[in-house]
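Re-run with default settings, no changes from the original entry. Doing this only to confirm the output is reproducible before filing.
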Amino acid sequence: TSTAEGAGIRYFSPRAEVAFCGHATIATAVAHADRHGVGRLDLATQAGPVPVVTTREDDQILATLTSVAPSVQELSGPILDRTLAALGWPAGDLDDTLPPVVAFAGNHHPVIAASTRARLAALDYDYDALDQIMAEHEWTTMQLVFRERDDVFHARDPFPPGGVVEDPATGAAAAALGGYLRAFGLVPQSRRVSVHQGYDMGRPSLLRVDIPVGDGGISVGGTATRLSG
């Protein structure tokens, strides 16, 4: 049964409300489709309108959201230095082909790329220091990535502003990454990027990011897992 419905939605972390949360949007749409049938659900978020389309694939419900229009701004100088110090990442461990930025697709996320998968896996940051920096600049999560190839990324997302050490899946940050890749002309020919997140914390997730031509929103898709009480 196809549906075309709308609803307002708000997102809360253990510590604070956030304007937009991609993985909660995916889960909400999957749960809605499970009860009411697949189709389109238009969500009114504090960041703006976010449409989500659900389909059935291989006996699973797949939900794909389209973010608000993304943007990027430079991340450099003392702010970057303080951030790297809080992460414990030497500047020499960064991927110099992916410059640090603050990317937006509903929330602001610093995007910082490690030059090796080992650097990403060894994440052990100063929680209080990073919390203070992120509060000062109103960053939601950090999108720390390693590029395996042009269409495959690995990500880890510290989330001190929400009272969470690390987020296992961050659709909003994946959308911001898609906007970043488009802004820097790094979109693969397929215009689809896979983001593997949560593996280093034992909560693996896979986010599918589709990057359209032009300046519109970024699409992020995934499935959800039912949790029993």
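The CA atoms of residues 47 and 216 lie 15 Å apart. The chain has five helices and 15 strands.
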